Amino acid sequence: MTAPIPFLDLLTPHIELKEHLLKAVEEAICKGAFIGGPAVSGFEAEFARYTESEHCVGVGSGTDALRFAFIAAGIGAGDVVITVSNTFIATTEAISQAGARPVFVDIDQATYTMDPAALAEYVETRCLRDASGCLIERARGLRVAAVVPVHLYGQMADMDPILEIAQRYGLAVFEDACQAHGAKYYSRAQERWLAAGSVGLAAAFSFYPGKNLGACGEAGAITTNDAELAKRMRILRDHGQSEKYYHDVEGWNGRLDALQAAILSIKLKRLPAWTEQRRNAAARYRELFTDAGFPHLVPYECDSSNAVYHLYVIRVQDREKLIQHLASEGIGTGIHYPIPLHLQKAYRDMNVPAGSLPVSERVAPEIVSLPMFPQITAEQQERVVCTVVQFLRATTRTLAMATA
Questions:
Q1: Are residues 215 and 361 in the same domain?
Q2: Is residue 5 part of a domain?
C-alpha cells in the first residue's frame, strides 16, 4: 500500500531534534526557569539578528504580537486600520482588540497580497485630510492611522509602493509577517534586500507549530527598530509592569514561555536550511507542473521577492472535487482561506457587501494548498503533481464531452 503524503509533517523535524529538545526541557525543569530569563532574552537577540531588526519582543502568540504593537503605537478607539480580507482572522482580531476598526482593500490577483493600487484608491477616494493634516475616512469621520500588509504564504507584499503611500498620508505600517519567517523583498527605492520584520514600524510573527519556525505550543514575537516602542511592548506583555509589582498601565499576560524560547532557539539554527529545502521543493513543483503542461498552476513569485514557501498554493476551478480526489489517493491538502473575512459572520456588522473585493472573492473558492514541508521528497512531489494533473485532465475531457 502506498504511504500517505501529509499536508504538513510535524513529526520528522521533531524526531531529528528530539535529543536537543529534550535537553532544553530537562534544563528548564532542573533550573526551575519557566518565565523570562536568559532563554527568552537569548532568543529575542537571535531572532532580532535573523530578521535584521534592532529589537525583538517575545510574546504568547502572533495575535498578541499585532495587538501589543498597535496599542504601544497609540492606535485605538476612533482609529481605522487598513488591511486585507484574504488573511487569517487574527489580523483583524488584533485591530479590533486594540480598540480600532479594520477596513479592507483588495489583493493583487497574482500574489494574493495587498494591492497597492487598491490601497491608493481607498485613501484617495474615500478619505480626506483634516486641518491638521490627518487622514480622515469620509463615511465615519474617523482617523485612518495605519496599514497592515500581510506577507502571505511565505511571500512579502509589494512594500515599496505601500510604504510610499503610507509616508505620503502619515500612516504607520505594521507587517503581518506570521507566515514569512526569513522572507525577503528587494526594495528598488532603497536598492537593497529587506528582511520580513525589518520594514515597517513593527512586525508580528507567529510561532504556531505549523509555521516555518514553530514552537511546541503557542508563541509569537514582535520586531521593531524603535527602542521606545519595544520598551512599551515589553511592559504591555507583562501586566503593564515596568518592574515587579509596579504597574505603569493595565497590560496583559502575553509573555513568551522560557521553554518555548529555548525550543525556538534550537529550531532557529535549522531554519536557513529548512528554508532552502522549501525553496528547492517549490522549484521542483514548478518544474513538474511545467513539464506536465500546467505552468499556470505554479504560484507567482515576483522578481523582487525571495519567498520562503510557508504554503504552496494553486488555483483550480473545481477545488472540492480535487481535494476529494487527492484524499482518495492518500494526499493531504489545506485551504487558506475559504471565506474572505468581510463575508464572515464575525464581521457582518461591517456591512461590506459581496462584490466589494472582487479579487479576494474570486480567489477564495479556488485556492488549495498542496503538501509543503522541508523534508518532502522528490518522489512524494511527483506523486502529488501526477495526481493533480490526472484529475485536471479528466475534468477537461469530461467538460469537452459535455459541450460537444
A1: no
A2: no
Q: What is the DSSP string of 77-127?
A: TTEEEEEESSS-THHHHHHHHTT-EEEEE-B-TTT-SB-HHHHHHHHHHSE
All cell numbers assigned to 339: 471565506
Per-residue confidence (pLDDT) for residue 139, from 0 to 100: 92
Identify the band that residue 399 occupies on the pLDDT scale cut at 50, 70 and 90.
very low
Q: Which three cell numbers stand for residue 363?
A: 480567489
- Amino acid at the residue 371: P
Any idea how long the chain is? 404
Same-domain pairing of 52 and 155? yes
Rounded to an integer, what distance in angstroms lies between the CA atom of residue 340 and that of residue 328? 28
Q: What is the largest CA-CA distance in the chain?
A: 78
Residues 331 and 224 in one domain: no
- Counted domains in the chain: 2
177 closest CA partner among 215, 139, 207, 146? 207
| pLDDT greater than 90 at residue 124 | yes
Residue 368 DSSP one-character state: E
Distance CA 149, CA 104 (A): 11
Average pLDDT score over residue span 381-397: 93
pLDDT in tens, 288-301: 999 999 999 999 99
Distance of CA 114 to the CA centre of its chain: 12
pLDDT tens digit sequence for 256-306: 999 999 999 999 999 999 999 999 999 999 999 999 999 999 999 999 999
Whether the pTM exceeds 0.90: the reply is yes
Q: How far apart are CA 308 and CA 305, in angstroms?
A: 9
Q: From 258, 247, 209, select the one nearest 9 (Cα to Cα).
A: 209
Average pLDDT of the segment spanning 18-34? 93
Q: Assess if residue 3 is contained within a domain.
A: no
Measured at the CA of 200, the angle between CA 356 and CA 191, to 5 degrees, comes to 105
Write the CATH number for 163. Answer: 3.40.640.10
| Domain extent at residue 388 | 271-403
Distance CA 165, CA 182 (A): 25
Q: Which three cell numbers stand for residue 184?
A: 525577503
